[in-house]
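Quick check before the chapter quiz. The format below is the same one you will see on the exam, so make sure you can read both the input and the output lines.
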Amino acid sequence: MFDSVLIANRGEIAIRVARGCRELGIRTVAVYSEADRDALHVRLADEAHLLGPAAASASYLAIDRILEVAERAGVDAIHPGYGFLAENADFATAVADAGMTFIGPPPEAIAQMGDKLSARAVALAAEVPTVPGTLEPTDDPVVARRFGEEHGYPVAVKAMFGGGGRGMKVVRDADELQDALAAARREAEAAFGRGECYLERYLERPRHVEIQVLADHHGNVIHLGERDCSLQRRHQKLVEEAPAPHLPEHVRAAMGAAAVDVAREMGYTNAGTCEFLLDPTDDPDEPTFYFLEMNTRLQVEHPVTELVTGIDLVHQQLRVAAGERLAMTQDDVRLRGHAIEVRINAEDPGANFVPTPGPIDRLVAPLGPWVRLDTGIESGAEVSRDYDSMIGKLIVWGEDRDIARARMSRALHELVLEGVPTTVPFHVLAMEHPDFAAGTHSTVSVEREWDLSSLTPALATGEAERDQPPSQDVVVEVDGRRLEVRIHGAIGGHVPAASTAAPRRRRGAGQARVATAATEDLVAPMQGTVVTYAVEVGAQVHTGDRIVVLEAMKMENAITAHRDGVVTVIGFETGQVVEQGAVLARIEDAADAGPQADDTP
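Here is the expected output.
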């Protein structure tokens, strides 16, 4: 076993790996950016080293700097976690060339699966079905139109080197193709450094089911069952569970065998995940599954597999990387009970999941049997706009799915998370939603089928919010019963000082104030960077038309017109950083716009 491991990551996954190392008696070395000097993962490691500025390109993606730190710290191996360099074949090669062990698959496997087109070729060689798609990358709208005409719409434009929903755009008619190709390329280049894209037939209402595999260096390959990750927004997962509900046993077995076949075909070692799309449209009892891609790393959602199998995946990664044989066979793998994980992101579900970076005022984890919170955040920490929006993962286990849902609902209500809006209110709704309870949801349910109107925006806007009197939370007893009430305004004629009058933010949501804007002004719902404007001054627009694209927390967000009218002001230029509440554009009534439209706010 290794003496010491450098963890080339941050946040909850760095902590998860560090804990696994410590349990096996391995010294841990953390790395951090200037933005993460006081982060929890830094303090929990045996030692920590500064990489560079907050920007990932100058810190967590800086291969030379990471290797320099690893050599100075004298480590035996490097664990990449997930994201950043976890699926970078050049990094895996550089680690090996420096005389250290990369805790993951060989570089050749990463390269094969990192390129989604070569991944499709591996699956076809293993006789595993794939979704119809192009065999070469393209950014040519003519090629894209031909593909749409042949296979029909919708079409998915997908980054060859992407993942987590980044660099993927769904196109529903030919007129959208050119913009989608450009947007997918931009997003993929920003997130992964490569912008090549390909086309794939988009399944209208699939389920997303994935298989966890483990493979050692001695030819042993097994799978640890499946996870259902169908509840998504913007093609990014919100809720994961194991096992998948209502999956016929013969389909489960066939998918597991297919994942093992793909891993064997490419000579895979260590932990990995084969992702499949399940198309139930023809016959729900005989769904067709298609290989989608293979993630050559530890998945965000790995805890649900750990809870239903009792197998520690980080321990297995370390043991396999150290040359040990797998200690179990396929017959030893047994799934027990049901596990559910929810991703708690700094996003406002009442405002179309816009990113909401900012400070965490207070975090109190829920307790009780079979409840697990994986997070790199604590009270007083900052959710940085430089990185992903995920704050943590809440995971529960129950003896069956209904008990697991009930336990998750209880844990969500006990969780105290104050300071920024989060996805917690959505998860509360999801656990009780009839579709999720019945297990009939799909990858499009959240955005196209569910009514989320009860999730009101947590971000305060407008004059009414600004002018609300101060409030206080007060505990009173009525007929011996303890009640918590919020009182707005003065109590007993006394107006409390501002320092004590600030309202306590509600759990899982939080409140933030933005500058009051005129009704004509389109304001930024979040802090971000201007990617592009879709209109010019003088353009006639309608409610819902795209006005500007902002990049925030590694995702592009289209900001649309809030009213009909004429664009009289363009507030910023491409590349400028805007604050929440900044006036992005002014849209006036056509009669009021007049002949003079200026280009400054």
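If your answer matched, good. The domain at 515-593 is CATH 2.40.50.100 (OB fold (Dihydrolipoamide Acetyltransferase, E2P)).
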